[in-house]
Design brief:
With about 500 residues, this protein is an alpha+beta fold. The chain is about 30% helix and about 25% strand. The protein has 15 helices and 21 strands.
C-alpha cells in the first residue's frame, strides 16, 4: 500500500481577493505563459543537473485542452513540463500570493503569476510535482468555493513516494471562469505563445506543444533591394542591428524593413529576459511615433523589429512595460541609430516601392496556394498518337544561376502513369524569352516553367495574370510531353496543349 503523508501550506491573503482574480486584466495566452515561464525558469535553474543525469535531455512543455461539448469552451486546461519540479522550499512558498522567490531576476519574479493566472482561468486548480532527487510527489488542490465558504488561510497537500529519478510539474485547471477560451481561439493561442517564446524556440531551448502541435516561430521576410534613390546600384539587406544605451536603460536587437507590407508583422516587439512582453498579439505591437511616424504612411507600414529591453520594470502579469515616459525617451534617442547617411532606413521605408510585377506575381502565388488547398489531386494527362512529324526545335536557353526568382508555385501532373511536379517560376531575367522549360531534373520527375516578367509581352499586354500564367504553364507541359513522349513535333505540342488546357487550373 502506498504511503500518503498529509501536510498544509499557507495561502495567506484575504479570501475575498481570490474571487477577484477572474476580473484582472489579462489574456488567455499571457495567463498560460505564466506557467510556461515557471517551467522555463525551472529548466534554466536546473539545466546542468538535468544534463548531467541525462546528456540527451530535452526540455518540453505541453499545453492541453479538454473542450465542453455544449459550448466548445475549455472545461480543463493542463500544462505539463519535465523541468526540475518544485522542491520542498519552493513548494512552501508557491501558494502565498506576492511571495517573491529568493532570486527574482528570472521569469518568475513576482510570486503572483501561477496563482493569479490559475484563478483567472478556473475556480479549481491543482499542482502535481516532484523535484529533482526528491523521492516524493507533492499534490495540492485549490477550490475557490471551498476556500471562500470556510475562510481558509491554509490548505492541505499530500506527499506520495515516487521514483527518485522523476522530475515534473503538472498544472490542471478546471471549473472554468468567464475567461476560459473556446476551441475557436486555439489557433490564436498557438500563434501568440509561439510569438512570446520566439527566442527559446529559435534557440531550441524548449519544445513547446499546444494541443498536440509543436510550436515554431516563422521569421518575417526582410527587404533586400537597392536604395530607393539609387535603384541601379546593388541590393542592400535592410536590417539594422541595435545595441543602444540610454542612462540605465538598454535596447538590443534589430529594426528592419518588411519585404512586403503586412499589417500583422509591422511594429516593434519588446522583450525582457528573452520573453516577449509587448507585441505577442497581432494587434498589440508597439509603434513609437518618433520611429514610425504617423499611422498610414509607408514607414509605419514597413518598419518592424525586436528589442530586448534592460532596466525597465514590467506589469505583474508581464504583458506591459512600466515607465512609459522613459521608454518613449529611449525610442526618441534610438532614432539616430537607424537614420544615418550610410544606412538610411527611414528614407528606404518611406520611398521604396515594390516592383509592380513582384506584387502581381506574389498575389498570383497566394491565390494559387490558397485554391490548391481544396484540390491537391494531380492533373491526369492523356497522350494521344499524332501523325505530323514536323520537328519542333529545341530553343530553350541554357539553365543559369544568375536568374533572379521572384516567386514560384507548384502543380502536379500525371503523364503516362508517372507523376511529375511542374514548378512555375516567375523570374527577372534579360527579357529575351517569354518562357522556357528547364528539364535538368526530369529524371527526378521535376520540370520548371520559367516566366520572365521582364519580357516585352508584359509591357505590351499588362502585368502577369492568372489567365496568362495558365496558358504559359500549359504550353510548357505540352512542350515537355511532345519532347519526352511523342516525336517532338509542333503538331504534337499543339495537340497536347489543346487537351491539357481543358484540365488546367489557375
Amino acid at each position: 500500500m502506498t504511503d500518503i503523508n498529509k501536510h498544509t501550506v499557507s495561502i495567506a491573503i484575504g479570501t475575498t481577493m481570490f474571487a477577484r482574480y477572474a476580473d484582472l486584466p489579462n489574456t488567455v495566452s499571457h495567463a498560460i505563459a505564466e506557467f510556461i515561464d515557471n517551467a522555463l525558469q525551472s529548466y534554466r535553474d536546473n539545466k546542468e543537473r538535468l544534463l548531467s543525469i541525462n546528456p540527451d535531455f530535452k526540455f518540453k512543455v505541453t499545453v492541453d485542452f479538454e473542450w465542453n461539448a455544449d459550448d466548445n469552451r475549455a472545461k480543463t486546461i493542463k500544462i505539463s513540463d519535465n523541468a526540475g519540479g518544485l522542491n520542498f522550499q519552493s513548494f512552501q512558498k508557491a501558494f502565498i500570493t506576492a511571495e517573491n522567490p529568493e532570486d527574482n531576476k528570472g521569469l518568475n519574479e513576482f510570486g503572483m503569476g501561477m496563482k493569479t493566472a490559475a484563478g483567472w482561468l478556473g475556480n479549481t486548480w491543482s499542482v502535481q510535482t516532484t523535484a529533482l532527487e526528491e523521492p516524493v510527489e507533492r499534490f495540492y488542490k485549490f477550490d475557490l468555493q471551498y476556500v471562500l465558504d470556510n475562510d481558509l488561510k491554509e490548505l492541505p497537500y499530500t506527499e506520495t513516494p515516487c521514483p527518485i529519478q522523476d522530475h515534473y510539474t503538472i498544472i490542471t485547471i478546471s471549473a472554468p471562469t468567464k475567461n476560459s477560451p473556446s476551441s475557436k481561439s486555439l489557433e490564436k493561442i498557438k500563434i501568440e505563445l509561439a510569438s512570446i517564446y520566439r527566442q527559446s524556440l529559435r534557440a531550441h531551448e524548449m519544445d513547446l506543444y499546444v494541443y498536440g502541435d509543436p510550436l515554431s516561430f516563422e521569421e518575417y521576410p526582410i527587404l533586400e533591394a537597392p536604395f530607393a534613390r539609387t535603384p541601379d546600384k546593388k541590393s542592400i539587406y535592410w536590417k539594422k542591428d541595435i545595441d543602444f544605451k540610454f542612462g540605465k536603460y538598454r535596447a538590443t536587437g534589430f529594426i528592419a524593413i518588411l519585404r512586403e507590407i503586412n499589417n500583422t508583422q509591422d511594429g516593434l516587439v519588446l522583450l525582457r529576459r528573452g520573453r516577449v512582453i509587448v507585441g505577442a498579439e497581432t494587434d498589440g505591437r508597439y509603434f513609437p511615433k518618433s520611429l514610425f511616424g504617423s499611422q498610414g504612411n509607408f514607414r509605419f507600414k514597413r518598419l518592424f523589429g525586436e528589442l530586448e529591453l534592460d532596466g525597465f520594470e514590467v506589469s505583474f502579469n508581464k504583458n506591459d512595460i512600466q515607465d512609459k515616459e522613459n521608454l518613449e525617451a529611449l525610442m526618441e534617442a534610438l532614432k539616430g541609430e537607424i537614420h544615418t547617411k550610410e544606412f538610411d532606413l527611414y528614407t528606404q521605408a518611406d520611398e521604396y516601392r515594390l516592383d509592380e510585377n513582384r506584387k502581381v506575381v506574389r498575389k498570383l502565388i497566394r491565390k494559387h496556394d490558397s485554391s490548391a488547398k481544396s484540390d491537391k489531386r494531380p492533373i491526369d494527362i492523356f497522350t494521344p498518337k499524332v501523325k505530323d512529324q514536323t520537328i519542333f526545335p529545341n530553343t530553350d536557353p541554357p539553365v543559369t544561376t544568375e536568374t533572379t526568382v521572384i516567386g514560384e508555385y507548384r502543380d502536379t501532373y500525371k503523364i503516362k502513369e508517372s507523376q511529375y511536379t511542374l514548378t512555375v517560376q516567375y523570374v527577372s531575367d534579360n527579357g529575351d524569352n517569354l518562357f522556357w522549360v528547364d528539364v535538368s531534373k526530369k529524371n527526378e520527375h521535376e520540370i520548371t516553367c520559367k516566366v520572365d516578367t521582364n519580357h516585352i509581352f508584359f509591357k505590351h499586354f499588362g502585368k502577369p495574370t492568372d489567365s496568362v500564367t495558365a496558358i504559359l504553364k500549359t504550353l510548357a507541359i505540352a512542350k515537355f510531353t511532345a519532347r519526352e513522349v511523342a516525336d517532338n513535333s509542333a503538331s504534337d505540342m499543339m495537340n497536347y496543349f489543346n487537351q491539357y488546357i481543358r484540365e488546367t487550373k489557375i
